[in-house]
Each structure stands twice: as structure tokens, then as C-alpha cells.
Amino acid sequence: MFRQRQYVVLTTLLFFFALAFSPFTGSAGADNGLLLATAFPGIETQPGETIIFPLELRNSGVPQKVDLKVVSAPKGWQALFKGGGMIVSQAFARTDTPANIDFQVEVPADVQPGNYSLVVQASGPSASSRLELQVVIKEVASGSDKMTTDYPVLSGTSSTTFRFRVDLTNNGAQERSYSLDAQAPPGWQVTFSPAYDSKQIASLTLKPGNSQGLDVTVKPPQNVKAGTYDIPIQASAGNSKAGVVLKVNITGTYTLELTTPTGRLNADAVAGRESPVTLVVKNTGSADMANITFAAAAASGWAVTFKPEKIDLLPAGSSQQVTAFIKPSSKAIAGDYVVSISADSQETSANADFRVSVRTSTLWGAVGVILVLIVVGAVAWTFRKYGRR
User: Fold this and answer.
1) Given a cut of 60, is residue 361 above it in pLDDT?
2) Which of 67, 94, 142, 342 is most solvent-facing, going by the fewest CB within 10 Å?
3) 16: left (phi over 0), alpha (psi -120 to 50) or beta
4) pLDDT at position 114, please?
5) Is this prediction's pTM over 0.70?
6) What is the rounded CA–CA span in Å between residue 225 and residue 280?
7) Concatenated DSSP letters for 318-336?
8) Of residues 284 and 167, more confidently modeled
């Protein structure tokens, strides 16, 4: 009986002795002094993200050079090791301090939600260690980046500079560098600036969960027509995109120009007679104008009429000819006169001063000659008749 107890005790001691000196095998697959570990073996992310597992390589044996290897990864995933900001394939495992290695994983944009496993390995001359990592893919909508604005529609004329305030939020798990872009119509100018800052930027970097206010300045071309214009803007960081559509409502500018086909503002007229003068009415604004009427200011006794009397509709950028019939007073003497002509719409007006050179009628000249001849004849007759007495 005593011998049996001694045997049991001896067997138990040998078992614990063997257990104490046997190699340790954990979840990281440690062997012969090498241990590959991480504080965060499971990470949640979204499709299109790039994630990083911070790894530690510990060595309880002799210092040695270790090969780094991706044993398994989902199909289509890109994975690599980084150290000191460089892509690495080996690390030196010291015994005093662990080697820090970043395991970078690029998740495809079309991956489906679910759990995915990757296995990495560190192998030395006589030791190795494996580590299984897990990536949990969430739905895209739960963590997609956002660009928002409280006032997406602004109104003004073609000479207005429009300023929008938008907010960009990084809802990802990693820091992101965004490039900024706008799809504006030809001739439009769109610039980006940080909120409350005047400098223009084309990109910015945001940490996870952070937001940045942006001032978006939109300047339309000078001759843009009235209407509503869409200005889509977007911030892109790899496969992650966030955007918003800004709208600009151009109410239009109203400007008229009154001139002649040759640009000369003078005319010839005969006293008492109508003289036609061709005018050109131009809509140089960005909005259509309706019901354009005409008026004239001239000397007393003059008359000015127009054909047509009004223009029902003059589209932006177009022109139309109008004839002004100027009739000086029949009593006007020869000389230069000023006639002011205006084109008026509800929104604006245009004016032009014409120099009108007036000639007297040749009929009155003939009548004057006849009268002179009559007077001369009468005087001659008088001298002949009464001069002999």
C-alpha cells in the first residue's frame, strides 16, 4: 500500500514537471521562444476601408532574424507588413524589447458583410509563431462618410458670388486624406476653403470621427442665363466618397443697349418732314425682357414716332431693329439739334442722344427766290413808271 502511494506521488510529480517544461502553445501559435501577438485581434470596418493591426513580435530565446508571411487571407484582399513606414518582409527579434510591426489590410469595396479571418506567421531558424486575426464587415450605410449643408440652394444675379457652408465627416475607422472636386457647368468657378479661413485648398485630412467645415465659393460666368444650376461637389478618399449637390438660382441681370447699326448717333432731317432713323435695341443682360416701349424728348413742335411701337419680348443676348421717324418743326431753322431717345422696360432702360442736322425745305427756298424776284420787278416797274415825271 505504501509503495502504491509512493508510485502515485512520483507519477504526479513527473507529470507536473513535464507540463512545466513543455513548450507553451497559445492562440498565437507560439513555439521555441517566438510569440506573435496583438492587443486587438478583431477589428470592425466597412467595405473599401484600409485597416491596420498593430503586431508585437516577442522573443524569449536567442536573438534571430524572422521571416514574416501571410499564411491565409480572403480572396481579393491585399495585405502586407509595415515597419518604420516601409513595407517589410522580415524583422529582427531581440530578447530585450519586442519588435513592433503593422499588418495592413485593404478590404475590397465589393465585399459582403460578415466575418473574415486572416492568418499571419513569423518564422525564425528554429522557431515560429502564428496568429489568427478577424475582420468583421459591417453594412456600408452605418459608417459611410457624410457631406452635409443647411442651405443647399442660393439665389442671386449673374454678378453674385455664392458662398455655401458644408460639413465633411469621416465616419471610418482610419484617418483619411480627401481630395475635393466640383462638377460645375463650363465657365463656372468653384473653390474650397476651410471654414473661417481665406486660403484655397484642394484636399484635407481627417481623423476618424472628426468633421471639418468648408466654405464653397461659386462664381457664375458673366453672361449666364437665368435659371437653376446644379453644382455637385464631392470629397474622395480611395473608395470612400461623400458629396452633396448645391443649387444656384440665377435670377438674371437686366441691361439694355440702344444704338444704331453703324454705332453713329447722328441723322439728317428736313424741317417739316419725317426722316427715318434705324435703331438697334440689344438685350445685354442674362434675363429675357418683355414689353419694351420707346419715348423721345425733342424741341418744341417736333414729333418722333416708332415702328414697332413696342417689343413684346426680347430674349437675353438678342437684339431687334426699330425705326424712329423724326419730324422737325416746320418752323425749324437750319442747324443741329439734339433728340434724346429711350427704350424702357419694367426692369431697366437705355438712352441715346442723337444729333439731328436740320435743313430747310427747297420749296421755301424757291418761294423766297420768287418773292425776291417779285419785289425786284415791282421796284423796277415803279421806277420806270414814275421815274420820268
Assistant:
1) yes
2) 142
3) alpha
4) 92
5) no
6) 21
7) -EEEEEEEEE--TTPPSEE
8) 167
